[in-house]
Amino acid sequence: MDSQPVSKFDKLLSPINKFFLYLLIIYLPLQELFLHFLESYTRLSVAKIFWISHFYEPLIVLMIFLYLVKFAIERRLPKWPKFDVSLLVFLFLAVLMVAIRHNDLSRGLEGLRFLALPFIIYILARLSDYQNPKRLTRIYLFIAFLFAAIGVVEFFLLPAGYMARFLGLSNFGFGQNSLISTPQATALLAGPNQLASYLILAFFYLMHRFFTSKKPILREESSYFLILVALALGLTFSRSALFGIIVGVVWMFIYFGRSARDRIIYSIIFIVVVLTAAVSLALQNGELPRDILTHGTSFSQHLLATKESFLQFIHGGAVKILFGFGVGSAGPTALKLGGIITENWYLQILFEVGVVGFIYLLIFLAGIIKSLYNDSKTLFFAIVALLINALFLHIFSDNPVMAVSIFIICGAVMNIETENPKSLPRRQAGKIQMSNEAQSPNA
After folding, report:
1. Residue 340, helix vs strand vs coil
2. What is the mean pLDDT of the chain?
3. Model confidence, pTM
4. CB neighbour burial string for 359-373, b if at least 16 within 10 angstroms, e if fewer
5. What stretch of H or E contains 142?
6. pLDDT digits (tens, 9 = 90+) for 123-146
7. Residue 94: how many CB atoms within 10 A of its CB?
8. Cα 422–415–136 angle (5° rounding)?
9. Closest Cα to residue 227, out of 211, 210, 215, 213?
10. pLDDT bracket for residue 105 (50, 70, 90)
11. What distance in Å separates the CA atoms of residue 134 and residue 24, rounded to the nearest whole number?
């Protein structure tokens, strides 16, 4: 963003916005626990529990309204790169689709909540002009390491259903999801896939530290956190997350190349050991080898749902192909209210906003990926892994813990990236952006 005089609105909104971003990155990992606590220990209605646990959603609407008032009064908009403008167009199209299909407004608004949340938070992060992603990343990493430790401890030391047995929290936590007979680690999140995707950024942060550190492996403390996070990821038995991680790791190997040949070999051995340990534990619990890969009929059901939804999309007619079947027609909203189960985030986007909206979102994602490749390798590899993960799940819609955390940090990195490069030589700008790994999660 070009330097502009700070207005009274900025002085008021920026601190509130920054506080709100920190609130989200801390609260959302605990939201599921809070929700089940309210369900188990209060006599509040379902609606009251929902709004208490989702208190931040009205606040998001209020923040957007205040910024719109600010722009209207000042008659000045922030100067952002084209890919950010593309995201704004995508969000406008999504809201427009909801308004056009006003006969099913409740479904449209429900779908908009799932579809737009991480991207609206990214916009708020950009509007905040906050430029300290390192602090945000430290908070995220602390929570991620804590959740990884909980996932490992509950798998080895706690009985399935311990949340209900010891804490009185029903239908929550370890034991709610399993392969066939082997419970999957979930920590305090909604399920194993949510935990796995949440830990992906921490995994690549630690992998990047592993490759760039000059210390011997056993003297680098991040190596031990890497073991913890990798083990927790393995104990989720999340196939989609594993596939995304493998793609990201291979890209990381290619990037570092011959300069880190020894560490690449150590990494391959380490990953094989972790996977072997996770598979061995499942086999000892009586799982059949095919069930570890297919999770019973889960794999075939996922493939069938994706195939059928794709065929339904391409046979929907020209208008629906271009502009979608309506926001809320697919994805998490469909799981809740009935509709098209795509089991694929990209197909979900196509169903909800069509090819036109999908193209605008792709432009934004391509711009983010390109910028992160230059400015934050940690986030770049993590985003690549998550985008692969999204081929098999609606992870950016049904896992706000991960999606919001990632896009808040991305927004802070982009605030640095758009502030400095045009006015400074590339090498000098790079120093400011990375600040010797102090202003970016590229560590």
Report:
1. strand
2. 87
3. 0.89
4. ebbebbeebbeebbe
5. helix 133-157
6. 999 999 899 999 999 999 999 999
7. 24
8. 145
9. 210
10. confident
11. 16
Q: Which residues of 187-211 are buried (b: 16+ CB within 10 A; e: fewer)?
A: bbbbbbbbbbbbbbbbbbbbbbbbb
* Token couple for 193: 């896939």
pLDDT band at residue 276 using 50, 70 and 90 as cut-offs: confident
Arithmetic mean of pLDDT, 421-428: 40
Nearby residues of 440 by Cβ (< 8 Å), 6 or more positions away? 133, 134, 375, 376, 378, 413, 416, 433, 434
Place of tokens 């920054």: 18
Backbone angles phi, psi at 173, to 5 degrees: 90, -165
Angstrom distance (rounded) from CA 243 to CA 387: 11
Residue whose structure tokens are 């905040």: 128
Describe the chain by its helix, strand, coil percentages, rounded to 5: 75, 0, 20
Quote the Cα angle for 307-304-398, to 5°: 85
Q: With 80 as the cut, is the pLDDT of residue 191 above it?
A: yes
How crowded is residue 308: how many other Cβ atoms within 10 Å of its Cβ? 14
Could you give the CA distance from residue 387 to residue 12 in angstroms, rounded to a whole number? 36
**What letter does residue 286 receive in the DSSP assignment?**
T
C-alpha to C-alpha distance for 412 and 399, rounded to whole angstroms: 20
Residue 13: is its pLDDT beyond 60? yes
Q: How far apart are CA 316 and CA 313, in angstroms?
A: 5
Q: How far is residue 252's CA from residue 246's CA, in Å, rounded to a whole number?
A: 10
β-sheet bridge partners, residue 340: 330
Q: Are 392 and 344 in contact, with CB atoms under 8 Å apart?
A: yes
Structure tokens given for 85:
């403008």
Return the bridge partners of 330, or none.
340
Q: Do residues 175 and 255 make contact, with C-beta atoms less than 8 angstroms apart?
A: no
- Structural contact between residues 287 and 279, judged by C-beta atoms closer than 8 angstroms: no
User: What digits encode the pLDDT tens for the residues 218-249?
Assistant: 778 888 999 999 999 999 989 889 999 999 99
* Residue at token pair 């994706």: 306
Cβ-based burial of 6 (10 A; exposed 0-12, middle 13-18, buried ≥19): exposed
